[in-house]
Design goal:
The chain is α/β, with parallel strands linked by helices. The chain has helices at residues 48-65, 72-88, 90-98, 105-124, 162-175, 190-202, 216-224, 238-251, 274-286, 306-317, 338-353, 385-388, 404-411, 427-436, 470-475; strands at residues 16-18, 21-23, 27-33, 38-44, 133-135, 141-149, 152-156, 179-183, 209-211, 231-235, 256-259, 265-268, 298-302, 357-360, 375-378, 395-401, 416-417, 419-423, 441-444, 460-461, 464-465, 478-486. It has a 7-stranded mixed beta sheet with strand order 14-15-16-13-12-18-19, with helices on both faces.
Length: 487
Amino acid sequence: MTLSFDPDSLLLPKGHFIGGKLIEARGELPIERPSDAKAYWDCPVADAGIVDQAVDTARRALKESGWASLRPRARTKTMQRWADLIEQEAVTLARMEAVCSTRPVAHLIAGDIAVTAEQIRFFAEFADKEGSDLVPTDGGSLGMIMTEPYGVVGAITPWNFPLSMAGWKLGPALAAGNAVVLKPSEMTPFSTLYLAELAVRAGVPAGLVNIVLGDGQTTGNAITGHPDIAKVSFTGSTGAGSAIMANIARTGVKPMTLELGGKSPQLVFADADLDLAAGAIATSLLANAGQACVAGSRLIVEARVANALAESIISKLATFRPGPTWDECTDYPPIISERQIGRMDSIVRATTDQGAECLTGGKRLDSEGYFYAPTLITGVTATSPAVLEEIFGPVLTIQTFEEEEEALSLADHPTYGLAAGLFTRDLSRAIRVTRHLQAGTVWVNRYGRSRDHILPTGGYKQSGIGKDLGREAYLANRKSKSVLVSL
């Protein structure tokens, strides 16, 4: 079966998903397909009243279903059935996401869909394996630390990996016994809506998963500031994360998990396997056209191998195949919007105007969609716009160093600390440098996540608060209570 499809013939779920069913709503936000710049739907905006309805539905569903107090293994089995359906409906989910996003349909089948199902299963297994702890206390008493779900969790996901980011939020929250009100990006809502429908088909009680569409200013603020939402989880830009913190502070106090922006370095020492490094760096630049918060957008390389490494990266970039996301042969996708591609190009131009040079790329591709050439920029300084700002696109800056201490100094960004890459054959150096890198995740002799969902992700500095994935994400969806019993 071919994965390619006609985007104009695709049937899409449209509206809010509340109480286990789609609710039609008037469209307000025009959406364009990034692959061909064609406007094809107006996304509705959930106001405070719609968010109230979703939250009330979630609260009632929690109470009436007894989801939080079910035998834990029952939650596990229900979520495992959900993962099974995700795999069975992989082609439908992939097409729904590819039509409006930057994710090529073949990449979704090979990666995102399977990973989302794995994540759901991973978190489902925590339901009957994480519980209360007995703790040492005075001999005349019994001390316990009990955990319990928060209740209704509010979640907001970004446009760059819509389905897998929804899995990040829904998986741990549901496994931990909560209900969820989730807002996907207004640019990429369809696969998340269908994911919620599959949850109900799998046996997750209707009303535990509610999807409301809209923008950040209206819908996002209504979710994060809602008095009956007990915890917030968000993945997106640092600016949006700051706004969420401010909105929560205005309306009360509640815990939050924020996975935010990054400007991640990739350090390459002269003793590294340069072909391995070049391949990993080129792949990180081409993957989703650099539209990832962990994108390794700053290459910091030992001076004596800098030219050889740059030439190798450029040769590997030459194989990229741009095309529409609904073509199964596409391996290099578009930029999400005209606004984003314009912002990216302005940062590149501002950097070259200051004296930097594009070794390759630095321009839009001749296409009806929003495509930008993979770009390498040399001759930058620590204050160059392309070094300082999160570009969120296929742009890599190159800086050189002579000594390890200089490399660490260049790697330390004043704002971000999400991820870092390190290439060296020297194990002692790898451990030593890793200890000094200011990043929540460090990859050594690779760049990018594996499918080991036990590894948490989250940033230092303004790259976030708390962790997604791993045991930490499950525990972040439960609150603890200390109990002391006199015997």
